[in-house]
Fold:
Amino acid sequence: MTEFKEIIEFDVGTFDDSRNLYYTQYFNEYYYDAFRPNQGTEVVLDILKRDGKSGKWLDLGAGPATLFWSLMLRDINELHCNELYIEGLKVLDDFLKGDSVPQCYKDVMNMYGIDSQHLVNMRTLPRKYYIFDALTEWPSDLSHNYDLITGFGVFGLTTNPEDYIRCFEYMRDFLKDDGHAIGANWIRSQSFIDKGNTDNRFMNMDLIKRAAERYDYQILHLSEERIENDENYDKVLVWSLCKL
Ligand SMILES: C[S@@+](CC[C@H](N)C(=O)[O-])C[C@H]1O[C@@H](n2cnc3c(N)ncnc32)[C@H](O)[C@@H]1O
Structure:
């Protein structure tokens, strides 16, 4: 079982500079400039809009992107964000507390007819920040009644099929019955792997089917989307599951 910590205050004096830089760069690089079509993101957004349950939401490996995915959700009344490192939660917290609206958000809001009040509502939700490792057994201190758990780009950080499948087991206990789990895992390209990144091409739709069967989820959506014009990623696996 991993360390579990709720972050109440950010003591920036203890922060690691390189992690800070990583999350700040990530924030400025992803979902910031104009929306990039044909990268699979439209499918993730559509599935979130269709299957994103209202109520209590946990976003795993949130990084600075929770507000982006929240664009598609309705009637969320509590937001919990998870990260491995506090520096990631601080970048997210600063963004949530501010009022900036990056171009990518504006584009998605135009595409889906979302008004600016939605962002205000999401930015002011009651929220909690939790540090724990989402790729191993989850800490029992966490709520066990989430309506919605999302994981974008997290389970795909595992290094073999069994570890990947087990992530769906760890998550299961923390969802309400009929709760939904929605996620996406980006599959790396040969050139990105050649640069020293782990090969995660073992991930495929069969693994998700196996996980759903083993841990009693109904599959609401499962697809593998091709990513065009990206040096680092070839495909993205998009899944939406209901806890039976
Ligand atoms: C590819 S980024 C995705 C960030 C964000 N969810 C998004 O949609 O852009 C992966 C995130 O998972 C976090 N992470 C990595 N390992 C983790 C773990 N074992 N448990 C929880 N979060 C983790 C990283 O710090 C990073 O913010």
Notes: The longest helix spans residues 17-29. The longest strand covers residues 175-188.
